[in-house]
């Protein structure tokens, strides 16, 4: 997908979970659109990602190492920022959590998924809010799984349903401050997280990863998997002046898989 031309010159954009995958694709889109970009992640690859984005845009991209579930870590990361015009809450964790799985690991995984995807995103928004001016935008990465049920991924599915609840509540709460809050709900994107889920699902079903991905593509109206860079356009749109009248909404981008 070729993103329409948007101009974010002079606007500070903060993208969480931006070291790779969808987050990096979003950050790349804003970098190309001229934004003053800050990327945040709890990932040793963050500095390298920021360096690539700096080379791409010709402007310095700041890298903020941070665990979004840790209030002190978030506070320290945000300390050097004076303004955030667009906050993209993209950081997240996707793991399989079969309810009948034996051992304590699945319980720990369930808690961590919810802690990152729900508590962490809420905490990041809360602590970033004093930096967001009137007319600012807050965007969340949800998922098509925020609108359906998927066997053995209850933690991730529940967390993404909760993400839409956050979006709708915060849109009402922050409307008097002139801040719009929306979500993008991607379908299957060729990322490390998505392919891991495909492999794990395939192993549990006695299939190959390719067979599972074939099922995914067959369920879509348009063929093929999206690439992370394909996701930049909807975020740019919602953050731009063209999206100024949109708040409390979830924009599904899934090549026609769900149509709900």
TrEMBL record:
Transmembrane segments: none
Keyword entries, A-Z: Oxidoreductase
MF GO annotations: oxidoreductase activity, acting on the CH-OH group of donors, NAD or NADP as acceptor
Domain Ketoreductase: 11-188
Pfam families reported for this sequence: adh_short_C2 (PF13561)
SUPFAM superfamilies: NAD(P)-binding Rossmann-fold domains
Domain of life the protein comes from: Bacteria
InterPro entries in the cross-refs: KR_dom (IPR057326), NAD(P)-bd_dom_sf (IPR036291), Sc_DH/Rdtase_CS (IPR020904), SDR_fam (IPR002347)
Protein family: Belongs to the short-chain dehydrogenases/reductases (SDR) family.
PANTHER family assigned: 3-OXOACYL-[ACYL-CARRIER-PROTEIN] REDUCTASE, SHORT-CHAIN DEHYDROGENASES/REDUCTASES FAMILY MEMBER
Protein name as it appears in the record: 3-hydroxybutyrate dehydrogenase
Organism per entry: Tistlia consotensis USBA 355
């Amino acid at each position: 997908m070729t993103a329409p031309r948007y101009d974010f010159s002079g606007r500070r954009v903060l993208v969480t979970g931006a070291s790779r995958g969808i987050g990096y694709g979003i950050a790349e889109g804003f970098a190309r659109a001229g934004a003053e970009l800050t990327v945040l992640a709890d990932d040793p690859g963050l500095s390298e990602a920021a360096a690539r984005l700096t080379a791409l845009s010709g402007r310095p991209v700041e890298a903020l190492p941070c665990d979004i579930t840790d209030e002190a870590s978030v506070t320290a990361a945000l300390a050097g920022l004076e303004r955030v015009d667009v906050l993209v809450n993209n950081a997240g964790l996707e793991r399989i959590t079969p309810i009948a799985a034996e051992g304590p690991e699945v319980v720990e995984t369930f808690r961590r998924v919810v802690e990152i995807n729900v508590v962490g995103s809420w905490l990041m928004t809360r602590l970033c809010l004093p930096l967001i001016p009137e007319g600012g935008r807050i965007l969340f990465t949800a998922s098509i799984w925020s609108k359906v049920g998927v066997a053995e991924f209850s933690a991730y599915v529940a967390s993404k349903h909760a993400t839409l609840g956050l979006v709708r509540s915060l849109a009402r709460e922050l409307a008097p401050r002139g801040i719009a809050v929306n979500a993008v709900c991607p379908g299957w994107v060729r990322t490390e997280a998505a392919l891991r889920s495909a492999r794990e699902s395939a192993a549990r079903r006695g299939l190959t990863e390719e067979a599972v991905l074939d099922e995914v593509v067959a369920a879509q109206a348009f063929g093929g998997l999206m690439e992370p860079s394909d996701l930049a356009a909807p975020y740019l749109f919602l953050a731009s002046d063209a999206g100024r009248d949109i708040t409390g909404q979830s924009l599904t981008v899934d090549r026609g898989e769900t149509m709900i």
